[in-house]
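Please, structure for the following, as C-alpha cells.
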Amino acid sequence: MEIPKKYRTLALILTGVALICIVYGLPLLINSAKPETCMINGSCQHEGFADQIAYVIPLALLFGIALGAAAHYLFSERISVPKPQHDKEAAYLLLDSDERKIVRKIGEQNGRALQSEISRIEGIGKVKAHRLLLRMSKKGIVEVESFGKTNTVKLAKGAKTLFE
C-alpha cells in the first residue's frame, strides 16, 4: 500500500511536533513531580521518586521503539523491482547455427523432440546430432532422456525461460 505524499508530509510534521513535545515536556513533567522535602514520616521522598522513574523508563523506551517503527514504515521508500525481460533473439545469438536449429525444432514439437527427428534436420546427421546434443546437455541447454531405441530431448528448466 503506497501512502500519498501529502499524508506522508502531514505524518512527518505530526511526528516532529510529538517528538519536540516529548523531548521538552517530559523533563518538565518529571521536575514538577520531584518532592521538595527529603524526609516525611522517616522515609526519604527522593527514593520513592526514583522508584517511580524506574517504572516510567521502560514505557518511554517502548514508546520510542514504537515511534521509530512507525516512522520507518511511513517514510521508507518502497522500491518495486521489475522482472527482467528476456530477449529471445538475444538468447539465440549465444548459440551456433546448428544449436539454433535444434532449439527451434524442440520448440516446434511443444518442448520435446526425438533425437531421430533432430538427426533429420537439414545439415545434421545422426553422429552430428549426438555430438551437438551432448555438448548442449553439458552447457545446460537441453536434457536428454532414453526413450526406447532413441532419446527424447527437451529444453532444460533454465533454458526454457530463455527460448520459449
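The longest strand covers residues 142-147. The CA atoms of residues 118 and 124 lie 8 Å apart.
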